[in-house]
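I wish you would study the pair of lines that follows with an eye to the fold:

===
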Amino acid sequence: MHTQLERYAAKVLLTTAISMSLMACSKPVDTAASMPSTTVGTEIDDTVVTASVRSALLADPDVKSLDVKVETRKGEVQLSGFVDNLAQAERISAIVKGVQGVKTIDNKMAMKTADTTVGNKVDDAIVTTRVKAALLADESVKSFDIAVVTRKGEVQLSGFVENQGQIDRAVQVARAVEDVHSVSNQMTLKK
C-alpha cells in the first residue's frame, strides 16, 4: 500500500523525467560543440536522485529540509544551506547516504550562527531573489546551475558549474547585490 507521500514523490519524479525529456528534445544540435559531459539519461538519473533525496529529507520529522539545497551530478549529491547544529548535519548526511543512486556526498552545509527573526527571513528572501535575478541577467553565468541561499545577509552559492571563470563571475555578481554582506562560494566544477 502506497502512502500519499510515495504517490506524490512518484508524480514529481515522472513529471521531472518528462520535462527533462522534452527539454532535451527541443534543444538545437550544435555539431561544433564538444560531446556533453553527461547524457540525457544521466541528467534524468540525477534528477531522480535529487527528488528522492528531497523526499527522504521531507519525510524525516527531525530534519528541516527547507533550509537544505540538494544538487546532483553523476550521482554526487551536493548539500548546501544552513543547519542548526552538527547533529542535524550528520542526520541529513545519514539520510542521504541511504537514498538509492547516491554515489558520494559533498557536504557544504554551514552552521547557523544565531536565531533569525521573521524580519530577517523576509530580508533574506529579498536578497536571495535579487541575487538570482542578477545571476540570470548576466550572460556569462549559467545561473540555472547555481543554487542561492541567504541567511542574515550571508549569501551561499552552490551547485555544479563548467569552469572557474563562472565561479568567479557568480561570486562577483552576488557581491554587487544590495544588502549582501558576504558571499560563501560552495560551487564545484563539473567533472
Observations:
- The two ends are 40 Å apart (CA to CA).
